[in-house]
Amino acid sequence: MASLARVTRKTRGPAGTASAVAGGVVRVAWLAFALILGLVSGLSVGGPAAAQSRPATLMADQVYVDGAGRLVASGAVEVWHGSTRMTAERVVFDRRQDQLIVEGAISVSDGPDQVILADAAQLSPSLRTGILTSARVMLDQQLQIAAARVRRGANGVSQMDAVVASSCPVCATNPTPLWEIRADRVTHDENTRRLLFERAQFRLAGVPVFYAPRLALPAPGNPRLRGFLRPVFGMDSALGFSVGMPYFIPFGDTRDLTLTPTLRSSGSATLGFRWRVARQNGGIEIGGQISRDTIRPGELRGYGYFRALFQLRDDWRLTADVMIPSDRTYLETYDITDDPRLRGHVTLERIHRDQAARARVLGFYSLRAADVNDELPNRVVEADLDRRIGLESTPLGGELRLRLGARAFWRNSAIDGVRGRDVARAHAELGWRRSGVLAGGVLVTGALDARVDHVRVSDDSAYPNPVTRRAVQGMIEFRWPWARTSDGGVAQVIEPVVQVIGSRLSGGALPNDDHTMPELDGGNLFALSRYSGEDAPDDNSRLNAGLRWTRHDPQGWTGEALVGRIWRRTPLAGFNPAHVQPLGFSASNWLLAGRVSNADGYAMSLRLLMDANARLTRTETNLAWEGTRTSLSTTYLYLPASAFESRTTDLSEWSIDLARRFGNGWATTVGWNYDVGQSLFATARAGMTYRTECLSMDMSLVRNFVTSTNPTASTSFDLRIELLGIGGRAPGDSGRTCRA
């Protein structure tokens, strides 16, 4: 049974009348309290269910009963009923009509999701039904709806007349919002969180753009309403102008389908699709698109993909990501991806602190025109177990690492030799590592590693079948850091590092399929094995030496530098001596690497590789700057011609990306990839975004020149516009604001 309880405040008035007024307030308070007790049944909102609802609470400066027997509250009136709160200047409760007559600067809020402002209202005692005039409704702190009249129904459905809706700010100096929807009537269903506009007119900057007899939109915070999503516009030199209209179809709360038909001025048509299913422990996504275009007349082209992620019992996780195109050029033509090689997998894994287990099936497909996929190892199956065993409490100390694994790959080709070779292998590896500190602050680390590989080779008569290889390595490493701090707070550390590694290899030679491009950088200079694969182990005795320098300045500057090299007792085995590569033969290239950064956003990194004759064999430089509104990133890469890496000419590429954010919601980007050696652009790109509290617009222009997967140049333009504050997207925090 709903009732009104009152809390009175001291009535404002002259000091001379304070006592008299106080006495009057006390008398009115007792009279109102008696009246409330007598009118409890008159304030009920319905039957037995309503009788069990929580009572309402009223607080005001003055409360009295007028001559008609109505309860009148005035002066800073506040009324609470459940989660609903109302403030007003004057509230009159009419028992005979069972309604509240509310006047002056009314605010009704039902939690943070809905706020109504009005000039006058007639409401039920529960505050949930009634009529408000000259009202403004704020939904989820995003969408504003101004209406001449709002009728709130008991079933959670409200009707609004003569409506203007927008999520843009409306200022006194600029009363026209960036976009708005005008309608004769709007129905807001709080149960389905849906807005239905009748005889709606969409305006952009005050100019009518289109008219719709009925327009259904999701209320803010409702991302799963059936209907059209934002349109996607594009322009491509090969496909022409395009318009795509995604249509979203939910099936309950856990499944949905999105269909995206796209038409192009060239006569091409595309249908995209995406099916999603969510479960308590994960979900799947299946999608793709089908096209009939003018590039290959009469052919049906497209691609499909499958993604999955499930968290299984005992911390096991199942993931999958597979993409299949109809031909090599489709993905780049339709701007799906510009990767030269597709990689799909289905993986089952479990990662714990001291153990990692993984089993996976992989597939590879090259999009390069010069590659023959039948002669590449495109199908792979592998399983690995990595176990750490701590020995800290034993006299031996350190830790043990046990690694077990098996993998196999196949080529479709049956040609004898590398173009048809199939390999299956299994390996077991046991390693031990321990670190300590000697007198004088020298850090010493010792490690032992033993590995056995058993390999079966098919379709390659150059290798016996099977082949067993055994490798044992021992390493001792010394690091002696020297630290110094100046009176100004500048700290410097110089650290010489020396590693001595002994290695013994026995058994037959294995084919090298998984590490054909060795690298040398600061991350693997002091690694026990610097290969990404397992077919070519780092064999023979060797010495890894280097010098590190680090400087920290209290002004915000930080500098790091590294110089190092590898010396071997015998030339590096497993690689053709005629092919130049960074790890060299008896001695590697010299590695020089460094990085400088400061607190103002500047950062520069550098990696150089030089041979014994001081000739550059590899250069990579990156410069970045992040300012308040401007960011810059530029990279220069130089790779000389190398038969070892199947590169017939020098590669000298310069790339740059520049972004600028403006204070009025605009932001621009520009960038390119430029081949310095051949004086040719590889890619040029530009973009522009505009984001305010109520609108998001993204435009991009990309010029793709001749690439390994696309023999002809192409230009593409993309435009995406989204109205913020409708559905699941919240308004932005940048752009225009009202200022005094």
> How many DSSP E strands?
42
Shape: elongated
Average the pLDDT over all residues and give the rounded result. 83
The portion of residues forming beta strands comes to: over 45%
Q: Helices and strands: which structural class?
A: mainly beta
Radius of gyration: 37 Å
Q: Gap between N and C termini, in Å?
A: 47 Å
* Uncertain regions spanning at least 5 consecutive residues: 1-52
What is the overall number of helices?
3
**Helical proportion, percent range:** under 10%
* Sheet having the most strands: 26 strands, antiparallel, barrel
Nutshell version of this structure?
This protein has 740 residues and is mostly beta strands.
Q: Can you tell me about this structure?
A:
- By secondary structure, the protein is mainly β.
- Among the domains are: 227-337; 476-648, no CATH class.
- Helices cover 4% and strands 56% of the residues.
- The protein is built from three helices and 42 strands.
- It has a 26-stranded antiparallel β-barrel.
- The longest helix has 21 residues, at 18-38.
- It is elongated, with a radius of gyration of 37 Å.
- The model is unreliable at 1-52 (pLDDT under 50).
Q: Can you tag this structure with a few keywords?
A:
mainly beta; 740 residues; 56% strand; 42 strands; 26-stranded antiparallel barrel; 4% helix
Could you outline the blueprint of secondary structure elements for this entry?
Blueprint: E1 4-8, H1 18-38, H2 48-51, E2 56-60, E3 62-65, E4 71-81, E5 84-94, E6 99-110, E7 114-123, E8 130-139, E9 143-152, E10 157-166, E11 179-189, E12 194-204, E13 207-218, E14 227-228, E15 232-236, E16 240-244, E17 247-251, E18 255-264, E19 269-279, E20 282-292, E21 301-311, E22 317-325, H3 330-333, E23 341-351, E24 355-366, E25 379-390, E26 399-410, E27 422-437, E28 443-458, E29 467-479, E30 482-485, E31 491-507, E32 542-552, E33 558-568, E34 590-597, E35 602-610, E36 616-626, E37 630-639, E38 651-661, E39 666-675, E40 680-691, E41 695-704, E42 714-723
